[in-house]
């Protein structure tokens, strides 16, 4: 014990730490510790939390356009406690913004910004801007669709700055377009420049705070107290409360069982895919909404963005910064309070309006739902087989479940339908002029096709040039008059043709009905069924004039018909309007394969063995 | 206690009766930091969870035709499927081997990594031996340490070779821990 004391005495004689500690801890709190003084300490606390969690995240994050999303995915899904670490960092950032506002309100309402504390107030303003800069830069780093498109808007706004705008934008994003250098720059600003500035200004802020002493709220209700432990205890309770709220938000999805805990990670940034639900972080939503205001455009024309995004916010920040000086006038303090009230009421209203507007838009909800579907699917894909070096977007493009519907919507849905929609769940504006393709090749689909009530509807041949062909007449006349035995035969024929597809969704059905399928294969050649009058089935037939039933709706068959419906194996010269997607090089073989897999429901993730 | 303190007692020792207050302040403050620090440490220690692949990667390196008859070693890259954190690739360069024909067995394969400190060992044609450029470990052509002053704790790591389809050379590639006498997969 003596030795320890001696060691500390030696340390004190060399560093003078005891006095420093005393000064730090035994600061006088006039009027006693109070809850209203905790905001500054909670902000320091959140800053420390961000530095600590940020440095640990840094150890796993990779800032490049093929690795940023991927490394965040790895942190989130494959590292010990990664979701928790990222969740705390994400929600503490939001807590920090709220605490900043509370701190600002407390300082202004209490008049703590007045002389001699003007400089300290200004340092606080610098810290405020730094924190907003941190949220803006941090939002891009996961490189998901949401952050990518929202930040693009922000950096495009930079470009409307007079004179230096375009150059400034280039410097900020590290080139002409988003890419590796955007991420390295944003990351350097986020993890280096801004935290460094903040440490400097926090030091100044705390130094001046100690120099001028705590600004006591009058009237003093109690005798003076010391910072330690009286005020520290209150501060600690407040910090713990902040952390509890943060952890609540991190765990919320798990507590209420509606998803992955932690911060959300959307699908990876993709410049070729729109994301109409891209929004900035919620506390920037008022600005986002403000820029949508029609009067900006009406009053300022194409300068509306400049005025709304740069000039008006600059004026607001300037007034905020000038508050200590405005406060010197007779009615200055009241003006400041009124200005703050108006500012926050306005921002609050705009925030409410923007969320209300989004809630009212079905496209917004659809876009969010689609993004969730994509990120969930991608999570399974990446966990099963890892991510290729080209990045997660490449993984998405190779997945039939994600890419199939997009290809269908772009290339097929102007005539075909998938379950009545365009593949992506949207109603198509074009009239349906070609068959419904959901479940193509399945027994249900074939049974509907061979149903006298259905074949001539627009779900099948009704709106095509085949509306009056032999096939339709056969179904409407012959099939309509089938007796019970023939109906049974037709059922077998359907089972047999459907078995050609070997659909993964019908695997067990096909395996259980071997006898029925065998009967059907024979029945196809039966005269009453009349199939081989026009079709070819499992036997070369040069005279066949209708699509080949061999391998009907199998992967190979579907790819071939999408590639070239004009081929004699399918519709030949009688082909209706369908383009030869492969022959005419509209789609690549890989894309056609994805379409075929998706239409066949062959979307199960296969784990590739190393 | 508060009454005692509103004079100028800036450097007074903390009041002992305030122990509970001090303890609670410290305890609650620590509690608030537990989540962030705990989650951070978990991520920091995550690599400890990643197991060493001890089965090796069996990969075709070359054919017998490209190996000189006279037993001079030749260097070949090992290209195999590889997992690097989030990335998985079917064909990545993961290391290299020296292959040479020897009497008695068809081919000898040596991992190019020096067992001393993990540098890439050169084949020195003039001395007809392997030389590590970092700390001058030397090895004879069969991989054995050929100088008592060599800092390497063991011979170059020999890998299992299999000849398939008369002339395909397949190697079971594996790295071993550097700096120790035992051959421990790493």
Draw up the topology in text.
The complex is a heterodimer of chains A (610) and B (186).
Chain A: H1 2-15, H2 17-25, E1 28-29, H3 38-58, H4 68-78, H5 82-109, H6 118-140, H7 145-158, H8 165-173, H9 180-212, E2 225-226, H10 227-255, H11 285-292, H12 294-300, H13 304-326, H14 332-359, H15 362-385, H16 392-397, H17 400-411, H18 443-449, H19 470-478, H20 484-501, H21 507-512, H22 514-523, H23 555-563, H24 589-599
Antiparallel strand pairs in A: 1-2
Helix pairs in contact in A: 3-5, 3-10, 4-5, 5-6, 5-10, 6-7, 6-9, 6-13, 7-8, 11-14, 12-13, 13-14, 17-24, 20-22, 23-24
Chain B: H1 19-45, E1 57-63, E2 74-84, E3 87-101, E4 107-111, E5 122-124, E6 129-131, E7 138-139, E8 158-164, E9 168-173
Antiparallel strand pairs in B: 1-9, 2-3, 3-4, 4-8, 5-6, 6-7, 8-9
Task: Write a brief structural summary.
The complex is a heterodimer of chains A (610) and B (186). Chain A is mostly helical and 610 residues long.
